[in-house]
Design goal:
20 helices, single chain, mainly alpha, Sodium/glucose cotransporter, two-stranded antiparallel sheet, 4 strands
């Protein structure tokens, strides 16, 4: 695709987002940025959450990873269903009953000041890293499609991407995001379906031919029953359940939009329909990966080099698989497929990153600065803007760091980070929900830091100590369990307010 065409697509898409931002941010109070005034239609939130939860990581990384993992990622998706059930029926009723703006306020009411701050800080670390990784992927694609061709360095690409997100979210906040994410989810799903169709057309294959390609592919293995494997079914299933719980139910980003619904009943409807839609969408992404590899096989197309998609005989796996889909879409499938892909990745990335930036701003403003956002003031509005800018800069730094150290598919990078940073949150909430004991609050931050350190040590020596067992996504459970046991050690019998 020509640079002018790519620039035009980005400009038109961004203009549409700015128009939505203008319509949704007129005459707003500061509180609207954080709560949306609790007036969001449940179906709009549900549809928008597709884009937020999927992100550019799913759009690029999951199809590429099919070459190494087949359809085994779907085992994680099945686990998501259990996780979302827990969120809708255990966590969301608590959040609505306590009328929370930040979900980490629960920890203060349940344990105390230090536990509250610990939970908020671990969320901020988790989400800055997670959002940075997702934005890294989008910036890499934009670099390939446009900025490399006009001689602009990667750092400028990152700054432009973050600036575009900041400029349409800094005023309307979560109210704007509920609408822009729905708009972007529409583009994401449309791009996915159209991409499959266009690639099939490149292969001279009908709809039935595409189905047969997926059905008879060597990559369509979905279940792995070898317990030594890092893709063993029960490892993936329970990892998926707990990943959903921590990365949605214990995450201010996803929960903030759920809490903009009018009441708990509508929020539960949102969660149900979001869960139902997630299964076919993920199956489509896995099918897309199969078709991409089939196309390469049928045409004899290969990519080589340190920074390109290629196969390593030594490692017996494909490397840099995140490069596969972008390379084919932008340089081999023609303009229509390229534009479709570009719209999809922009939609997916902006939908997850804009809400992350708003959630980070909300958590820091409420949890760290201790500001009551329900009280309108010029000071609160100014602080909100500076916090928003501060986290934009933090994302910029994280992206550059990840570019320097990345040697894996981004989907694996996201889950690795989640295993270490969300584990203490999982342990804190589990102890709060399933125990009536109180804790020595001032010791909680030390347990929260020690937990991921011990998890790393266990993971590092697991092959030698556990008869070849390899930890993958389930490291999150180990981390959460260590945190839970640590809290148990520093706990004491006490009567806790049962309403909390």
């Amino acid at each position: 695709m020509s640079p002018i065409l790519v620039f035009s697509v980005i400009a038109i898409y961004f203009s549409a987002l700015m128009f939505i931002s203008y319509l949704t941010s007129r005459n707003l109070q500061t509180e609207t940025f954080f709560t949306g005034n609790h007036r969001s239609p449940w179906y709009l939130v549900a549809f928008g959450m597709i884009g937020t939860s999927i992100s550019g990581v799913t759009f690029i990384s999951i199809p590429g990873e099919v070459g190494n993992s087949g359809f085994t990622y779907f085992q994680v998706v099945i686990g998501y269903l259990l996780g979302y059930f827990v969120i809708a029926n255990v966590l969301m009723p608590i959040y609505y009953r306590l009328k929370l703006v930040s979900i980490y306020t629960y920890l203060e009411q349940r344990f105390g000041y230090f536990s509250y701050k610990t939970g908020a800080v671990f969320f901020l670390i988790s989400r800055v890293i997670g959002a940075g990784i997702r934005l890294f992927l989008a910036a890499t694609v934009l670099q390939l499609a446009f900025f490399d061709k006009v001689g602009i360095p990667f750092e400028i690409t990152v700054l432009v991407t973050i600036f575009l997100i900041w400029i349409y979210t800094y005023k309307g906040g979560v109210k704007t995001i509920v609408w822009t994410d729905s708009f972007q989810s529409l583009f994401l799903v449309t791009a996915l379906v159209v991409s499959i169709y266009l690639i099939g057309k490149e292969m001279n294959s009908s709809f039935l031919g595409i189905l047969n390609t997926v059905r008879h592919s060597e990559y369509n293995k979905m279940f792995d029953w070898n317990w030594h494997s890092d893709k063993y079914f029960f490892k993936q299933f329970f990892s998926g359940a707990f990943i959903a719980i921590v990365m949605t139910g214990l995450d201010q980003d996803l929960m903030q939009k759920n809490l903009t619904c009018k009441n708990l009943k509508e929020a539960k409807k949102n969660m149900f329909w979001f869960t139902v839609s997630l299964v076919p969408v993920n199956l489509l992404f896995l099918s897309l990966g199969t078709i991409l590899y089939a196309y390469c096989a049928s045409t004899g197309l290969t990519f080589s080099g340190a920074d390109s998609f290629h196969y390593s005989i030594e490692a017996a796996k494909y490397l840099n698989t995140d490069k596969l889909y972008p390379e084919l879409a932008i340089n081999h499938f023609g303009n229509i497929a390229g534009i479709t892909f570009l719209l999809g990745i922009i939609a997916a990335t902006f939908a997850s990153s804009d809400s992350a930036l708003t959630a980070l701003t909300t958590s820091f403003t409420v949890d760290i600065l201790g500001i009551d956002v329900r009280k309108e003031s010029k000071s609160t509005s100014n602080k909100k803007i500076w916090v928003h800018l501060g986290f934009s800069f933090a994302l910029f730094i994280v992206i550059l760091i990840f570019k320097w150290i990345n040697n894996d598919s981004v989907i694996n990078g996201v889950f690795k980070v989640a295993g270490y940073t969300y584990g203490p949150l999982l342990g804190l909430y589990a102890f709060g929900l399933f125990s009536k004991r109180s804790v020595i609050d001032k010791f909680v931050p030390f347990i929260a830091v020690l937990s991921p350190i011990l998890s790393f040590i266990i993971s590092y020596f697991s092959v030698e100590l556990l008869m070849g067992y390899k930890f993958r996504f389930e490291l999150l459970l180990v981390n959460g369990l260590i945190m839970f046991l640590g809290l148990l050690i520093i706990s004491k019998k006490n009567t806790v307010d049962q309403r909390v």
